[in-house]
Amino acid sequence: MVDWKGLAKKSIEKSTEVAKQGVSKSKEKADEKKREKALQEEQDLAFEKMVLGASLRAEKLNLKGKNKKQILEAEHIRNQQIRNNQFVFEKPAKTTVILDDNFVRITHKGLTNALTVGSSGEKAIKISDINSVQLSPPGGIVSGYLQFTLAGNKNTQGLSEAVKDENSIIFIKDDLDMAVVIKTIVEGLMAQDQDASGFTVNQQDLSPAEELRKYKALLDDGILTQDEFDAKKKQLLDM
């Protein structure tokens, strides 16, 4: 005689076991997804800290919204380029600057540069030929410029002249940090060259007031801290 009751019980037990296994597998998959998500969030946070720690304009980056990842990736590339003394200015006209021990290599690209500067391609300026480096920070909607003055040349008077000068770099406020880095590095290389050659290159002297205005602009743009500005002000005014 068939034990229908026993068979039914075994069938129920088997179905229950299969169901438990299914629930267990689903829970394992859910737990695995949670672990993967937590790991990804941890990696994203570590990447963000690394990028912002290396960035010279971290406080100015807008990381709100859906484009946060793309912004951080672009800033990471920018940080690497700066570390390698390569500087890419995308606006208002694309210009690339590469620094080495002997030259400043400026490459003007695109139609805008061709129309304003009158040329495109690379311009190599020998460090030893540079007399001074002039930095004019951007203000409002007006672009800034960085100019390398060579022996026998005069500093540009204003942006309207700088855009026509092949030895100048025009940049927007977002790229002021790169202009400051370039100026600092080039002036350091100039000092080394002067020490090695045993003479001092004549540079255009700025009055204390002009110097102070320059550093005030860097303070307003967040490049200098208040303490750094105060120290420079004390030095310039012999306080």
Descriptive overview:
The protein is of the alpha+beta class. 52% of the residues lie in helices and 16% in strands. It has a four-stranded antiparallel sheet. A three-stranded antiparallel sheet has the order 5-6-7, with helices on one face. Helix 6 (208-220) packs antiparallel against helix 7.
Summed up, what is this model?
The protein has helices at 4-54, 68-83, 110-116, 159-162, 176-197, 208-220, 226-236; strands at 86-89, 95-99, 103-108, 121-126, 130-136, 144-150, 168-171.
Write the layout of secondary structure elements.
Elements: H1 4-54, H2 68-83, E1 86-89, E2 95-99, E3 103-108, H3 110-116, E4 121-126, E5 130-136, E6 144-150, H4 159-162, E7 168-171, H5 176-197, H6 208-220, H7 226-236
Antiparallel strand pairs: 1-2, 2-3, 3-4, 5-6, 6-7
Fill in the keyword field for this structure:
alpha+beta, 4-stranded antiparallel beta sheet, 3-stranded antiparallel beta sheet, 239 residues, 52% helix, single chain, 7 strands
